[in-house]
Known about the structure:
plasmid; GNAT_dom; Aminopeptidase; 7-stranded mixed β-sheet; 5 helices; GNAT family N-acetyltransferase; acyltransferase activity, transferring groups other than amino-acyl groups
Amino acid sequence: MALVRQLVPDDAEALRMLRLEALESHPEAFGSSHAEESARSVDAFAAWTTGGFIAGGFVDNQLDAMAGLSIPRTAKQMHKGMLWGVYVRECRRGSGLAEAVMDVVLEHAGTRVEQVHLSVAAANERAINLYRRLGFQPYGTEPRALMVNGIYIDELLMVKFLSR
């Protein structure tokens, strides 16, 4: 049985390990690199849990999925949130854990923002299908959004308007 909840500072080590796994397994899916993130301390990851909202999906007390939401602090942009760091361990893909984690993030977002934005590698059809099922709509493509190992990655930009 899966448990999904907001991550807290005590989850920092598990968060760090899952994040590093994500960056190593799928470097094309994230703006940060494994080298950059592996240099961060566990305390830095603990600070992430208090500085924003990160939901974690646990199976058998192991953190197997995560998704974060950041909200700009500028008055003109506080109506929108940005989804980041979505990752599900490969052994849990297709289990519904991604949807469960996203539901918690979107429920939290619904109390704070009017819309949620995300960017996803344009070739990542599985993730794009998940986001579409959750009500996200594409509104553009950023060409050459990332460069990973000398290869450009285009990103699809998506938004979900929340009823507030």
